[in-house]
């Protein structure tokens, strides 16, 4: 008995250093966020204002909605490169099913708003299902499978709009994408609800646990009798649907639906998830990390506008920050493994 | 012993702790050139930790570390390598997709002036080296196509012939067949003549006594004995290891053991004419409730594949499985689990989540029983606590990351995950491999208890002792075919080996 308590006490008295080391993944992104915010607040008087906080929130909303699903995928140690394309095609689809002004030269199929929305969501779910089947049934690595889907979704977008631009979307989408309620943009609220929902699912549901376990050790998950393929398939569909919702609201937010509208969102969403500290090797991280990552990206993008920097340099700086985050991501994994040894 | 030699490696007062848990406490250890030094001790006694310090894997510890009498501090395994220290780890670390020759020369392929690999020379030299070891394979074969035992021998050969002065072998014989073990020992003795110092860690005390000059015993992170092999016995070593009357615990199984009458209880699983590519051919048997069916065979006889088929991980090319009278084709391991089949594979790494706490490891297979949608962490912890208590898992802290537990305790966790809601059929692969006597005994008792509760149990092992200690009925699998059934008759280690 005495040895048991000794063990328990030894465990409790593990000390701060190993704990911090194992928490590196969560601490580093947060420190990055604080440093960046402090820097921009110091460099520009217009940065640290309540108005600008609202700007930042609005600017990261679409990315945030897409990143919810991507977090599930990356937690499973998979990747989804088709998110931006699926967002684009879903946004275009919902406009395609809506009556456009007469000057818009698209042979579209106007339908009632609710039907248009449901059809669009079915479309992105279907594309996600194709991803899922390719990954699990055929066994194509997600990197390649979703690369193909990126092209397929872009192709469908191209066929639907044929180089034209559509403007109208169902009124519900218009409201959620560009309206606001007592000063708060609906799109921010939607993003917050989806992030919260994702967090709750990952933390408190059986499915969420399975996602972490499959990502932590896929082989062990299979030997524990989990249906690994079903879980992987589910996360691919979740990712596609989140992208689709992000795409629909994005179209309303930008006020137009056109080809290649969401191209930058692929990198931004992956960056948000990874910068936030979710492990690329799976099993570690979560929506909390993604939120921090979103803010790091949001503050960076927004702040660089405030300090009057060469807009071409901005792209380079973003790339460098992403690289730094990747290094920390891999480094944190190693530290953790060491702490667990 | 010839004249007094000065130690090639000397460690003084080594202490090492992991997050507050002391794995080694003030250990002294000296290694002479031309010596085979056996290390024994229960799982978690500190053997592997000490060896990892010597091999430069663990670089933070306190105490003095001397090589050739000079104080040294390795910062990495590369430093250790440069000092002539090489280690073969318990887990295979080969490149299965490369050729045998590439594996032998991994990291230092012979190249010509242009830096191109000299394939012909490499193949020839690899072939020669392996021949010295008594291995006759085409050096240009893909390594992964060879049986596991042979792969392990090749890995050991690579390390032994790497020119290292100090070679550490961690459980090298657990995957080897008896003739392979003989070959290994012959090579070790030859290297000893050449002046290489060898550390040999093993749970097979017979092997240690057979091959080593000196034996050191660890218990609870301390060195408790060091003696000449000739001056000790298996019983004495076991006693030093576990600190209690050891004789009764370790059964040698050289004498005949009487198997009971075959059981006539319900057939839980019936395998009919199972076949799989080159691994299995027409394997048929029945597993009954309340009976432990042992399946014995050498490494690569098809045991692994058979266990995977039973759990739905592999699909057989032919044959049928009938579970409780109903024919089944498992589409996934989840389907097998739902049908009441559970598997504990031979590798803990494949079964457990090292970065997750113990309780999540235990609850993962039964989550759907305790929660439909939302998790119930408190209940999970309760269940885990009960299992940890019942199986005497140490340390008894369910929130601890699994990776912090010793190998034997991890193995118990692997069992524990199936025990809260016992399956109908439990398939155990090598349930006691790499375990110390005490932990082995615990596992044996757990299995007997489960049998008494009416489970059908299949134990697959390449160690005759494991099968003999557990099984009521024994099947011998040889190159993918069942060749012999022992039932209601005397059986011994010799008889099993003969049949295989």
Automatic annotation (TrEMBL), chain A:
<dbReference type="GO" id="GO:0005886">
    <property type="term" value="C:plasma membrane"/>
</dbReference>
<feature type="transmembrane region" description="Helical">
    <location>
        <begin position="30"/>
        <end position="50"/>
    </location>
</feature>
<feature type="transmembrane region" description="Helical">
    <location>
        <begin position="315"/>
        <end position="332"/>
    </location>
</feature>
<feature type="transmembrane region" description="Helical">
    <location>
        <begin position="111"/>
        <end position="130"/>
    </location>
</feature>
<dbReference type="GO" id="GO:0022857">
    <property type="term" value="F:transmembrane transporter activity"/>
</dbReference>
<feature type="transmembrane region" description="Helical">
    <location>
        <begin position="142"/>
        <end position="163"/>
    </location>
</feature>
<dbReference type="Pfam" id="PF02653">
    <property type="entry name" value="BPD_transp_2"/>
</dbReference>
<keyword id="KW-0812">Transmembrane</keyword>
<keyword id="KW-1003">Cell membrane</keyword>
<keyword id="KW-0472">Membrane</keyword>
<keyword id="KW-1133">Transmembrane helix</keyword>
<keyword id="KW-0813">Transport</keyword>
<dbReference type="InterPro" id="IPR001851">
    <property type="entry name" value="ABC_transp_permease"/>
</dbReference>
<keyword id="KW-0997">Cell inner membrane</keyword>
<feature type="transmembrane region" description="Helical">
    <location>
        <begin position="56"/>
        <end position="74"/>
    </location>
</feature>
<protein>
    <submittedName>
        <fullName>Monosaccharide ABC transporter membrane protein (CUT2 family)</fullName>
    </submittedName>
</protein>
<feature type="transmembrane region" description="Helical">
    <location>
        <begin position="183"/>
        <end position="205"/>
    </location>
</feature>
<feature type="transmembrane region" description="Helical">
    <location>
        <begin position="81"/>
        <end position="99"/>
    </location>
</feature>
<feature type="transmembrane region" description="Helical">
    <location>
        <begin position="226"/>
        <end position="252"/>
    </location>
</feature>
Automatic annotation (TrEMBL), chain B:
<dbReference type="InterPro" id="IPR050107">
    <property type="entry name" value="ABC_carbohydrate_import_ATPase"/>
</dbReference>
<keyword id="KW-0677">Repeat</keyword>
<keyword id="KW-0547">Nucleotide-binding</keyword>
<dbReference type="InterPro" id="IPR027417">
    <property type="entry name" value="P-loop_NTPase"/>
</dbReference>
<dbReference type="InterPro" id="IPR003593">
    <property type="entry name" value="AAA+_ATPase"/>
</dbReference>
<dbReference type="InterPro" id="IPR017871">
    <property type="entry name" value="ABC_transporter-like_CS"/>
</dbReference>
<keyword id="KW-1003">Cell membrane</keyword>
<feature type="domain" description="ABC transporter">
    <location>
        <begin position="9"/>
        <end position="245"/>
    </location>
</feature>
<comment type="similarity">
    <text>Belongs to the ABC transporter superfamily.</text>
</comment>
<keyword id="KW-0762">Sugar transport</keyword>
<protein>
    <submittedName>
        <fullName>Monosaccharide ABC transporter ATP-binding protein (CUT2 family)</fullName>
    </submittedName>
</protein>
<keyword id="KW-0813">Transport</keyword>
<feature type="domain" description="ABC transporter">
    <location>
        <begin position="263"/>
        <end position="499"/>
    </location>
</feature>
<comment type="function">
    <text>Involved in beta-(1--&gt;2)glucan export. Transmembrane domains (TMD) form a pore in the inner membrane and the ATP-binding domain (NBD) is responsible for energy generation.</text>
</comment>
<dbReference type="InterPro" id="IPR003439">
    <property type="entry name" value="ABC_transporter-like_ATP-bd"/>
</dbReference>
<keyword id="KW-0472">Membrane</keyword>
<keyword id="KW-1278">Translocase</keyword>
<dbReference type="GO" id="GO:0005886">
    <property type="term" value="C:plasma membrane"/>
</dbReference>
<dbReference type="Pfam" id="PF00005">
    <property type="entry name" value="ABC_tran"/>
</dbReference>
<dbReference type="GO" id="GO:0005524">
    <property type="term" value="F:ATP binding"/>
</dbReference>
<keyword id="KW-0067">ATP-binding</keyword>
<dbReference type="GO" id="GO:0016887">
    <property type="term" value="F:ATP hydrolysis activity"/>
</dbReference>
